[in-house]
Amino acid sequence: TTDPLTKVSNRKGLVDDLNSAIEAGQKKTLPMVIMMIDADNFKSLNDVHGHLAGDKVLYFLAQSIKSVIRSGDKVYRYGGEEFTVVLNRCEKDQAFAVADKIRSKIESSHLIYSGKTINVTGSIGATLHRKGDNYDDLMGRADEAMYSAKSKGKNRTIIFD
Fold first, then answer.
1. What pTM was computed for the model?
2. CA distance 48 to 61
3. 126/76 Cα distance (integer angstroms)
């Protein structure tokens, strides 16, 4: 359940962890937030700097996210250049602050690869757990929020509650 490239949990880990939490919260709203984070213009980054640089960026993104979240929260590599974060015991205002801190950390970092600076930004979508939610409900809303952030100009945070 660990992604070998980024050293964070993988999608199988996310499915297992989230389904366990959701099962416990079927009859109530859980103070849980699901975040989807997508590296903006990642294909272009790979095309310009190469796939090895892209791999370094993915590792950097995973470690940056981990450095911002609390120890009880968890980051997963969802696939490609997308990451999912599960924030436990978290409300909307806290979630926005954490998400925007992640976004800001990514944006302000200037990575150097083979002597060239690589600037990376991320679009973040998040949603709060609702009573009766299943895995698809939560992930669907988080994904929709992330695509909303991308369509509104990228490098931003959108939360659907």
1. 0.95
2. 18
3. 14
Q: Which of 23, 81, 82, 91 is catalytic?
A: 81
What the block records as the tokens of 53 is 């640089």
Average pLDDT over residues 95-112: 94
Judge contact between 125 and 142, C-beta under 8 A: yes
- The tens digit of pLDDT for each residue in 77-96 reads 999 999 999 999 999 999 99
Q: Could you identify the residue written with the tokens 């790979």?
A: 46
pLDDT of 161 > 90? The answer is: no
Among this protein's residues, is 81 annotated catalytic? yes
